[in-house]
């Protein structure tokens, strides 16, 4: 049985950890990898430096946890949005639009900073590759499911993978400027193309 | 008339500048933005630190020139490859494959490091946005030309833009792992989709 005196302390500790992880994503998205230190994240989270270092003794520990956290949040976001999709006409456009949203938010922006940093930092690279493969597989499976298509049909796998890559490219295009207007036109047109491609 | 005694010195100076710019792209692609300093680039280029600082007094000067240089090289690459495309069957796949190559090389990798750095560094961001708009327009125009389609046809603009975004996404997917096999499957399938979409 849980110790009733320890439970509130554990809750507080979990809440602190959560605040630090949220702050680390915000910090990555806004000031980038080099400027995101445990001290900066602690200040942003309103947590004492000591408490932050209790959770994350080193910067590597913080990023390791942040990558896991971002993976979970991105998958949860995909699941939530997938459940709210309309049926019938407009469904495909809603799906492609949802994907574009997932890949243009602050979470993707934070992930971009981490990916680029990881490309020249070995332990981080290995960890991200493992988790990205997981996110990629889950996103791919979710996309097949909401589009109601099967990979057994030749070409479907590559069609759907290409859509995910397009969404990633749209995310990148949104990094330095607000690309919303151009993006909406592409989402509309490629939804039509996708419907055609999956029907044939 | 050119001074015959000055000409060789000017040539040497131009060659040194060129070596420094090539080395800065290599350095960005291999060790990233934070580690790419004028001193590191000079050492990589085999140029004295003094000579490097004569060309690029500050790191900002180096990146400003590197961004211009990368823009020129990327456009020249697109033009060269566009001129070597086959005609008839297989042309569209050769085009999409060429695009995927342009967006997965060391030049794109170097550009990714710069873009992410620029997202949190104002003067660099403005400069890159201006030059990327130029590269984007030229790449878009070249793609319309080699695909032999016109933007006057409704939907063509967005179809072609989406393919460029897909290529950018493929470049990103190749940053942390060798994504060649998956990419070839997507290029093949998306070439078919593109042919269908542009024909209808």
The tally of domains of chain A stands at 2
| Greatest interface by residues involved | A-B, 48 and 48 residues
| Helical segment count of chain A | 9
Helix content of chain A: over 70%
Question: How would you spell out the order of helices and strands of chain A?
Answer: HHHHHHHHH
Proportion of residues in β-strands of chain A? under 5%
| Mean residue pLDDT of chain A | 92
Main sheet properties of chain A: none
Structural class of chain A: mainly alpha
Protein name (chains A, B): AcrR family transcriptional regulator
Keywords (chains A, B): DNA-binding
Domain HTH tetR-type (chains A, B): 14-74
GO molecular function (chains A, B): DNA-binding transcription factor activity; transcription cis-regulatory region binding
Please, could you describe this protein's structure?
Chains A, B: This is AcrR family transcriptional regulator. Chains A, B: One of its GO terms (molecular function) is DNA-binding transcription factor activity. Chains A, B: Residues 14-74 form the HTH tetR-type domain. Chains A, B: Keywords: DNA-binding. The structure is a homodimer of 200-residue chains. With 200 residues, chain A is an all-alpha fold. The first copy, chain A, has 2 domains: 1-57, Homeodomain-like (Arc Repressor Mutant, subunit A, Orthogonal Bundle); 58-199, Tetracycline Repressor, domain 2, CATH 1.10.357. The first copy, chain A, contains 9 helices and no strands. Chain A has helices at residues 7-31, 38-45, 49-55, 59-83, 91-102, 106-118, 122-147, 156-173, 180-199. The first copy, chain A, is elongated. The N and C termini of chain A lie far apart (59 Å). The interface between A and B is large, with 48 and 48 residues.
């Amino acid at each position: 049985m849980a110790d009733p005196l320890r439970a509130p302390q554990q809750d507080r500790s979990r809440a602190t950890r959560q605040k630090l992880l949220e702050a680390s994503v915000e910090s990555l998205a806004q000031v980038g990898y080099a400027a995101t230190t445990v001290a900066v994240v602690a200040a942003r989270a309103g947590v004492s430096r000591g408490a932050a270092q209790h959770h994350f003794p080193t910067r590597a520990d913080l990023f390791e946890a942040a990558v896991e956290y971002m993976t979970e949040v991105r998958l949860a976001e995909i699941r939530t949005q997938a459940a709210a999709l309309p049926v019938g006409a407009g469904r495909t456009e809603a799906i492609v639009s949802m994907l574009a949203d997932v890949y243009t938010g602050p979470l993707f922006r934070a992930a971009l900073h981490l990916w680029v940093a990881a490309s020249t930092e070995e332990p981080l690279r290995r960890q991200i590759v493992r988790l990205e493969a997981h996110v990629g597989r889950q996103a791919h499976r979710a996309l097949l499911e909401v589009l109601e298509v099967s990979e057994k049909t030749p070409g479907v796998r590559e069609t759907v993978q290409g859509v995910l890559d397009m969404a990633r490219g749209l995310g990148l295009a949104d990094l330095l400027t607000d690309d919303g207007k151009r993006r909406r036109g592409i989402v509309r047109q490629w939804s039509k193309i996708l419907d055609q491609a999956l029907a044939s």
